């Protein structure tokens, strides 16, 4: 995984997301999830493409069930786009890099 992508825990979530001066994209995923594995390399590319403008983060729902419950994650992958600490957009399911890029561009 890219060093530009942060693994979030229940303890680090507020510090990274709520207090960020940049928009934050949070990918809720699990190791056993096929579509999640399809989205992972796209998130890597987006972390490079939007470096310094948007923070990309991941939450493993198996390890961080509290966070998944807090945001009512029912299906994975679910990508939440945060701006100023608030959910700006929610995307459920695998999408193309172009679709994710459009969401990121709206955040800027």
TrEMBL record:
Keywords: Disulfide bond, Electron transport, Redox-active center, Transport. The record marks 34-35 as: Contributes to redox potential value. The active site is at residues 33, 36. The keyword Disulfide bond applies. GO terms for cellular component: cytoplasm. It holds the Pfam family Thioredoxin. It comes from the Bacteria. Disulfide bonds join 33-36. GO terms for molecular function: protein-disulfide reductase activity. PANTHER family: GEO12009P1. Belongs to the thioredoxin family. This is Thioredoxin.
């Amino acid at each position: 995984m890219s060093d530009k992508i942060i693994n979030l825990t229940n303890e680090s979530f507020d510090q990274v997301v709520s207090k960020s001066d940049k928009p934050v994209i949070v990918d809720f995923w699990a190791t056993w999830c096929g579509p999640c594995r399809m989205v992972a390399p796209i998130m890597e590319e987006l972390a490079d493409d939007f470096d310094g403008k948007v923070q990309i983060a991941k939450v493993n729902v198996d390890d961080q069930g509290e966070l998944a419950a807090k945001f009512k994650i029912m299906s994975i992958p679910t990508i939440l786009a945060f701006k100023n600490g608030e959910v700006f957009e929610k995307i459920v399911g695998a999408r193309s890099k172009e679709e994710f890029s459009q969401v990121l561009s709206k955040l800027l």
